[in-house]
Amino acid sequence: MSVTEKRLYLGKDDRRKQLLQAASSLVEQHGWSALSMSSLAESTGVSRQLIYQHFPNLEALLSATSWAIFVDTMEGTRDAIMKHPTDLKAAIMAAELVTLDMPVGRSDALWQLVAGMDLGMPELESIRVGIRDVIIGLWVPPIIKQKGLDEENAKSLVWMMIMAFWATRNMIRDKVVSREVGLKQFHIVIEALL
Questions:
Q1: Which CATH number covers residue 46?
Q2: Mean pLDDT value of segment 107-113
């Protein structure tokens, strides 16, 4: 932006949304380590001071960005569970499509958070644990209800299913298996787990 160009004025909420979209885009294109106050300011053509007005520190920026990346998956998973309250397999099949159908960069960023790999930022560890707890919290009640497990065993089963899903998703992404074959194999694993 040149000195003579004026930055478009946006209200506080709209500016924050714009910044979160840009932060999400940075992460989706370059990974979590690419996101900083400076890189966000540079990519949006605003000052670092403006970034700090919306996010007081890097951890706040990372937290808001991770939530922005995760919220669609969380809502889609919650909706899948609500639409299939008595059929775990149907709920799982509906929920898997939420993540499989999202853009690759977004699902890669989410995978890094879920698995805690390639993060390179200690600030993301508590965020990762929080996201894991939200995912587990969505699935544990229907697992307990339908399978009669105690909470500890339900949590363990949920995390096994989540890791099996992400392994499948990565094999499909890397073209090791077709989507059809990957999902078929994932459903076999789910059948065995349930």
A1: 1.10.357.10
A2: 90
